[in-house]
């Protein structure tokens, strides 16, 4: 596989005009055009692109040939020539024919939002599984668009839209690419099998599993690092980390849990990417508790939360037990903090505050525990007494004749697994 590090000289050559089309379909979906375009700027900058200008167009429907219409293309051409841009990045997904037509008319590299996100992922993937998943997503995206690549194939010296599979793979025929896709799916299937076995082993041990999910740049990796001292990259960038990381975390009562960071979500996350990363994202589906990390300081907090819930629904994880964690409250005014509310249980924290981290650990511990139950165990039944200590936290013990009464705050998972040998005691 081709080296996926940035080519600095090529990256510096990427000077782009960003284009967004607002159609009736997007209006019906209540898509915030201004926010989406601002996010595209962030994505472009994350990919190392210099953004020269942004252009928007309102149309009832997209033009099947030119996407934004012939007149707007001519206007875009003048702006590109005036600024000396080398690339046009579109906020919506383009067809192969549209890429070919725009490329011929504008004489610059044409990239859409999906290709830009895939390109960023190609630069972020570090593990074998991540690299395979990204290449699979890129090839799945490119296969139906091969006829639209045109001059893009001659522009493959580097920069955005070219990291990952590499120029030789893009120049091969469809059959070769389909063979490569099948090969990658085989590799991924084997990796998924290993991941599933690992998950099952964790489940058998009865360890409580918590998944961190949230919009990209909400602070998931920061939180994992602060809670567990995990060696993970923390940057103020979109998709700073890509590969999932699991670490053990000790709770205040001495119980250990597994905490897993997942890839950040984003609106219009490419379907090919969701499909390729399903095995990774399913860490959320297997979790006993999902912590939905929210950037409290974001002006688009509400929209970002909706996107996360939509992706969780697609994964079949929306019914999982959840707690919302409003992060970065140190960047909010007191009035703004007061307005941070949502349905269900939530907590407000600053990931760099030790007292807030303690608060969060206590909250997770509370979610693990069930009712407080009393068990009456004969004093000569040490085997049953040992079970009592394994199913929760013993709060108090007292003696009654030849029996011992244990008052226990139950750990749900342990009680489900081991509690069948014990009968809760109720006074007659």
UniProtKB/TrEMBL annotation:
Its cofactor is Mg(2+). Pfam families: GTP-bdg_M, GTP-bdg_N, MMR_HSR1. The keyword GTP-binding applies. The keyword Nucleotide-binding applies. Keywords: Cytoplasm, GTP-binding, Magnesium, Metal-binding, Nucleotide-binding. GO terms for cellular component: cytoplasm. One of its GO terms (molecular function) is metal ion binding. InterPro entries: G_HFLX_dom (IPR030394), GTP-bd (IPR006073), GTP-bd_M (IPR032305), GTPase_HflX (IPR016496), GTPase_HflX_N (IPR025121), GTPase_HflX_N_sf (IPR042108), P-loop_NTPase (IPR027417). Signal peptide: none annotated. Mg(2+) binds at residues 221, 241. It is found in: Cytoplasm. Residues 208-372 form the Hflx-type G domain. Its main location: cytoplasm. GTP binds at residues 214-221, 239-243, 261-264, 327-330. Belongs to the TRAFAC class OBG-HflX-like GTPase superfamily. HflX GTPase family. HAMAP family: GTPase_HflX (MF_00900). GTPase that associates with the 50S ribosomal subunit and may have a role during protein synthesis or ribosome biogenesis. Monomer. Associates with the 50S ribosomal subunit. NCBIfam families: GTP_HflX (TIGR03156). This is GTPase HflX. The gene is hflX.
